[in-house]
Design brief:
Chain B: It comes from Pan troglodytes. The complex is a heterodimer of chains A (345) and B (476). With 345 residues, chain A is mainly beta. In chain A, 0% of the residues lie in helices and 55% in strands. Chain A has a 4-stranded antiparallel sheet with strand order 1-30-29-28, with no helix packed on it. Chain A has a 4-stranded antiparallel sheet with strand order 2-3-4-5, with no helix packed on it. Chain A has a 4-stranded antiparallel sheet with strand order 6-7-8-9, with no helix packed on it. The radius of gyration of chain A is 19 Å and the shape is globular. Among the domains of chain B are: 91-157 and 214-309, Rossmann fold (3-Layer(aba) Sandwich); 159-213 and 312-426, Fe-only Hydrogenase (Larger Subunit), Chain L, domain 3 (3-Layer(aba) Sandwich), CATH 3.40.950. Chain B has 16 helices and 14 strands. In chain B, helix 13 links the parallel strand 13 and strand 14 (389-393). With 476 residues, chain B is an alpha/beta fold. In chain B, helix 7 (154-174) packs across helix 12 and helix 8 (191-205) runs parallel beside helix 13. A 5-stranded mixed sheet of chain B has the order 6-14-13-12-11, sandwiched between helices. A 4-stranded parallel sheet of chain B has the order 5-4-7-10, sandwiched between helices. A 3-stranded antiparallel sheet of chain B has the order 1-2-3, with no helix packed on it. Classes of the chains: A mainly beta (345), B alpha/beta (476). Chains A and B meet through strand 13 of A and helix 13 of B.
C-alpha cells in the first residue's frame, strides 16, 4: 500500500516556520504556499525539480493562513491572521498587491473564489463569513456578512459550478449559503461531526461535499434536490402555512477509525480523496467501484506514515496532472507525491 | 443563544465598552472568631470544607457566594457586557422601581416617566390590530395603571434631533473650504453604528459623524433637565424609561456622556425594547385593546395632544429627507416637494440627488445594514465617497426592523414589516420647524438656537475605543 504514494521531492518552503496551505493554479503549473513566516511563495517546475519563482513578502503583518487562485489564474487571494485579505495580481512572475480587504474583526482563516470569478468569500475567528463582489475595475465591495456560525469559522469553499458557498466551523457544523433576493442566507446546516470541522471539499461534480474534523472522521454529504429519485423530501414550513421544497444534505458516508489524530485538510478527486492528518501522515481513500452511490464505501488505498515530521496541514491534488499531490506541514516543508491507483481498483 | 444586538454591535465586542474589572470587590462577610494560630482546612469527599481548630474541633466552613446581582451591582469582572446591559435594564427593573415607589414615603418616591418611540408603537399596533392613536392612548393608560406618572412620545424630541442635524449640515457644507473633514456628514441616531465606528475606525470616521443627539438622548435632556425643573425635582428623582425597537439603545443610554455627574443620574435610566413591554403586558395580565384610552401627555402645555405626530422620510427618523430638503432650501433656494430615492446595489442602499442644469448640487445616501456600512466606510477611507450626507443605520430595513421589535411566528416577516411600516406611516407628519412647543423650548429652555445650552443638551461627543488587551477580555 505504501508504494501507491511515492515521494517526488521536498522543498523547505517556509524555513523555521509552518507551512499552512497550498493552492495549485487552475493550469496546474504553479503552486502557491503560505506560512507562519508571513510570506507567500510561488513554486514552478524547472526540469525535474520545484523551484521558488516568486516570494510575496510585503502583504501581511502576521501569518498567512490560506491562499486561493482566481478561476482565471490571474489573481491570488491570501487570508491572514492580521485580519486582512490581500488580492494579488499576477504579471508574469511578479505579483502586485492590488487591494486589501478589511472588515473582519480578527484573524481571517480562509478565502475562496466562486467559479464565476466575480465573488469571493472570507471567514474569520470573528464567527462571520463575508461575501465580496469584484467589478471590472478590480474594486471589491462587501455583498453580505453572514453571522450564522456560533464559533470560529475555519474554512470556506465554493461549489465547483453553482453559486453555493460552504463553511466549516469550531462549532462542529458545516453551513451552506446561497443568494436569495438581494442578500445571502444560510440555507442548510450539516450536523454530525462531534468536534471542530477543519476543512471541506466538493467533489469535481459538485454532488458531494466531504468534511474532515477534529473528531478524526471524514464525512461525505450528498445534496438531494427537490423531486429527487430517492424520495428524499424536505419542506420548510413557512409562516403563513406555505411550504417550500428545500434541497437537503444528508451524510451518506462516515470514514472513522482510520485517523489517529485531528484531520486538518481533505482534497477530492472523482472517486478518491486525500487527507492531511495531525499524526504526520497522508492517506488516500478510493471509492469502492461497486458501492451504492447513495451509500458509498471507501477503502484506504494509501497510508503514508511520517509523510512529514510534524502535522500535515494541507493536501492538494494537481488539477491537470492526475495523481500529482502536494502536501505541507508544520515542519515548514512542501512535499510532492505521485499517487498510483492500486491494481484492481 | 443568538445575540439580540444589531449585526454591527455583534461584531464589535461589547466588552470593550463595558470593561470587566480585574478584581472582584464584592466583600464576603465571614464571621471572624477571635483566636490565634493557623487553622488547617480539610476537604471532605463531598467537597465541603472543614476547618480544624488547634484543639481538634472542626467547623464546617460556609461557601462564599457571589450572586449575579452582586456582580451587576459592582463593575462586573466575570459578567459579560451583554448580560449587564440586558439585566440592568429590563422590565423587571422597572417593576422594582414601581414597587419601591408604592412602599416609599412621598419624599423618597421617584417620578416615573416613560418615553415611547413611534417605531415601538407601530410594532405594538400591528400586534394588537389597533391604529397608532389608539395604541398610544392605551399604552398611556397601561403605564399609568402600573404606577408610571407621565408617558411621552419621542417623536417630540426627534424634532430637535432633526433641526440640529439640518443646521449642522448647512454649517459644514458652507465651511467645506476650511475643513477637509467637514463632509460627508454621517447621521448619529443609531448607537449600533456609533459604537462600531468608535471601535473599528476611531479617529478617522468620528469627525464625520453628526454631533446631534438621538431622539432618545434629547428626550433624556428634556425629561431630566427641562421637565425636572418644571416639576421642581432634581434629575435623580426622576426614573426615565424609554421604549425602543432595539437592544442597542440600552448601550446608548449607558454611555458616560449621558451620565449627569452632578446629580449622579443617567439621562435615560432604563431602555425597554418593544418585546419587553409586550412581556410586561403579559405579566400584568393586561390586554392592551381592552383598556380605556387615556389622554396623551405632552411635555409642553402649548402642544395639543389629541393624537401622536411623526416625521416624513421613513421609519428611522427621516434624517436624510429632512437634511436634504432643508439644505436644498437654505443653500440653493430650491423647494423639494417629494424626495426621489434611487436604489443601488440593494434596497438598503439608496441615493438621492439634487440637480440643477445638469449639475449635481447635493448627493445624499441612506446606508442600512452592516454590509452597506462596510462599503461606505471603505470608500470613505479611500477618499472615494461621493456623498455629502449619509443616513446610516445598523439594521437592514431600518429601525422598524430593529432587534427588539415584536415578531409574529405565524406571518412571513416581510409581510409583518410592511404592515408595521404602513401603521408607522399613518401617523400625521409634522415639520420640526412648525411643531408646537419647539420654538418656545429653544427660547426659554435653551436660551437660543446656537447657545451653549443647546450645544450641551442637544449634542454629544464620540470617543475612539481601544481594543481591550486584558486576558479577561478574550473569549476563547
Amino acid at each position: 500500500m505504501k508504494d501507491s504514494l511515492v515521494l517526488l521531492g521536498r522543498v523547505p518552503a517556509h524555513p523555521d516556520s509552518r507551512c499552512w496551505f497550498l493552492a495549485w493554479n487552475p493550469a496546474g503549473t504553479l503552486l502557491a504556499s503560505c506560512g507562519g513566516d508571513r510570506r507567500i511563495r510561488i513554486w514552478g517546475t524547472e526540469g525535474d525539480s520545484w523551484i521558488c519563482k516568486s516570494v510575496l513578502s510585503e502583504g501581511h503583518q502576521r501569518t498567512v493562513r490560506k491562499v486561493a487562485w482566481s478561476p482565471c489564474g490571474n489573481y491570488l487571494a491570501s487570508a491572514s491572521f492580521d485580519a486582512t485579505t490581500c488580492i494579488w495580481k499576477k504579471n508574469q512572475d511578479d505579483f502586485e498587491c492590488v487591494t486589501t480587504l478589511e472588515g473582519h474583526e480578527n484573524e481571517v482563516k480562509s478565502v475562496a473564489w466562486a467559479p464565476s470569478g466575480n465573488l469571493l468569500a472570507t471567514c474569520s475567528r470573528d464567527k462571520s463569513v463575508w461575501v465580496w463582489e469584484v467589478d471590472e475595475e478590480d474594486e471589491y465591495e462587501c455583498v453580505s456578512v453572514l453571522n450564522s456560525h456560533t464559533q470560529d469559522v475555519k474554512h470556506v469553499v465554493w461549489h465547483p459550478s453553482q453559486e453555493l458557498l460552504a463553511s466549516a466551523s469550531y462549532d462542529d457544523t458545516v453551513k451552506l449559503y446561497r443568494e436569495e433576493e438581494d442578500d445571502w442566507v444560510c440555507c442548510a446546516t450539516l450536523e454530525g461531526h462531534e468536534s471542530t470541522v477543519w476543512s471541506l471539499a466538493f467533489d469535481p461534480s459538485g454532488q458531494r461535499l466531504a468534511s474532515c474534523s477534529d473528531d478524526r472522521t471524514v464525512r461525505i454529504w450528498r445534496q438531494y434536490l427537490p423531486g429527487n429519485e430517492q424520495g428524499e423530501v424536505h419542506y420548510l414550513s413557512c409562516r403563513g402555512g406555505m411550504q417550500r421544497l428545500l434541497t437537503q444534505w444528508k451524510c451518506i458516508c462516515t470514514l472513522s477509525g482510520f485517523h489517529s489524530r485531528t484531520i486538518y485538510d481533505i482534497a477530492c478527486l472523482t472517486g478518491a480523496l486525500a487527507t492531511a492528518c495531525g499524526d504526520d501522515a497522508i492517506r488516500v481513500f478510493q471509492e469502492d467501484p461497486n458501492s451504492d452511490p447513495q451509500q458509498p464505501t471507501f477503502s484506504l488505498t494509501a497510508h503514508l506514515h511520517q509523510a512529514h515530521s510534524q502535522d500535515v496541514n494541507c493536501v492538494a491534488w494537481n488539477p491537470k496532472e492526475p495523481g500529482l499531490l502536494a502536501s505541507c506541514s508544520d515542519d515548514g516543508e512542501v512535499a510532492f507525491w505521485k499517487y498510483q491507483r492500486p491494481e484492481g481498483l | 443563544m443568538a445575540s439580540p444586538f444589531s449585526g454591527a454591535l455583534q461584531l464589535t465586542d461589547l466588552d470593550d465598552f463595558i470593561g470587566p474589572s480585574q478584581e472582584c470587590i464584592k466583600p464576603v462577610k465571614v464571621e471572624k472568631r477571635a483566636g490565634s494560630g493557623v487553622a488547617k482546612i480539610r476537604i471532605e469527599d463531598d467537597g465541603s470544607y472543614f476547618q480544624i481548630n488547634q484543639d481538634g474541633g472542626t467547623r464546617r466552613l460556609e461557601k462564599a457566594k457571589v450572586s449575579l446581582n452582586d456582580c451587576l451591582a459592582c463593575s462586573g469582572c466575570i459578567t459579560s457586557a451583554e448580560t449587564v446591559l440586558i439585566t440592568q435594564q429590563s422590565h423587571e427593573e422597572l417593576k422594582k422601581v414601581l414597587d419601591a415607589n408604592k412602599m416609599a414615603a412621598p419624599s423618597q418616591q421617584r417620578l416615573v416617566v416613560v418615553s415611547v418611540s413611534p417605531q415601538s408603537r407601530a410594532s405594538l399596533a400591528a400586534r394588537f390590530q389597533l391604529n397608532p392613536t389608539d395604541t398610544a392612548r392605551k399604552l398611556t393608560s397601561f403605564f399609568k395603571k402600573i404606577g408610571v406618572h407621565f408617558v411621552f412620545d419621542t417623536a417630540f424630541s426627534r424634532h430637535f434631533s432633526l433641526l440640529e442635524s439640518q443646521r449642522e449640515f448647512v454649517r459644514r457644507f458652507r465651511g467645506q473650504a476650511d475643513c477637509r473633514q467637514a463632509l460627508p456628514l454621517l447621521a448619529s441616531a443609531c448607537p449600533g453604528w456609533i459604537c462600531y465606528a468608535e471601535k473599528t475606525h476611531g479617529s478617522f470616521i468620528l469627525p464625520h459623524i453628526s454631533t446631534a443627539r438621538s431622539p432618545q438622548q434629547v428626550m433624556g435632556s428634556l425629561v431630566k433637565d427641562f421637565f425636572a425643573q418644571q416639576q421642581h425635582l432634581t434629575p435623580d428623582k426622576i426614573y426615565h424609561v424609554t421604549v425602543m425597537p432595539c437592544y442597542d439603545k440600552k448601550l446608548e443610554a449607558s454611555r458616560p456622556d449621558f451620565f449627569n455627574q452632578e446629580h449622579q443620574t443617567r439621562d435615560v435610566d432604563c431602555v425597554l425594547t418593544t418585546g419587553e413591554v409586550f412581556r410586561l403586558l403579559e405579566e400584568e395580565g393586561v390586554s392592551l385593546p381592552d383598556l380605556e384610552p387615556a389622554p396623551l401627555d405632552s411635555l409642553c402645555s402649548g402642544a395639543s395632544a389629541e393624537e401622536p405626530s411623526s416625521h416624513r422620510g421613513g421609519g428611522s427618523g427621516g434624517y436624510l429627507e429632512h437634511v436634504f430638503r432643508h439644505a436644498a432650501r437654505e443653500l440653493f433656494g430650491i423647494h423639494v416637494a417629494e424626495v426621489t430615492y434611487k436604489p443601488l446595489r440593494n434596497k438598503d442602499f439608496q441615493e438621492v440627488t439634487l440637480e440643477k442644469e445638469g449639475q449635481v448640487l447635493l448627493h445624499f445616501a441612506m446606508a442600512y445594514g452592516f454590509r452597506n456600512i462596510q462599503n461606505l466606510v471603505q470608500r470613505l477611507k479611500r477618499g472615494r465617497c461621493p456623498y455629502h450626507y449619509v443616513e446610516v443605520m445598523a439594521c437592514p430595513s431600518g429601525c422598524l426592523n430593529g432587534g427588539g421589535q415584536l415578531q409574529a411566528p405565524d406571518r412571513p416577516s416581510r409581510e409583518l414589516l410592511q404592515h408595521v411600516e404602513r401603521l408607522y406611516g399613518m401617523v400625521r407628519a409634522e415639520a420640526p420647524e412648525d411643531a408646537p412647543g419647539v420654538r418656545e423650548l429653544y427660547t426659554h429652555w435653551l436660551q437660543g438656537t446656537d447657545s451653549e445650552c443647546a450645544g450641551r443638551l442637544l449634542h454629544t461627543q464620540y470617543h475612539a475605543v481601544e481594543k481591550a488587551s486584558t486576558g479577561l477580555g478574550i473569549r476563547w
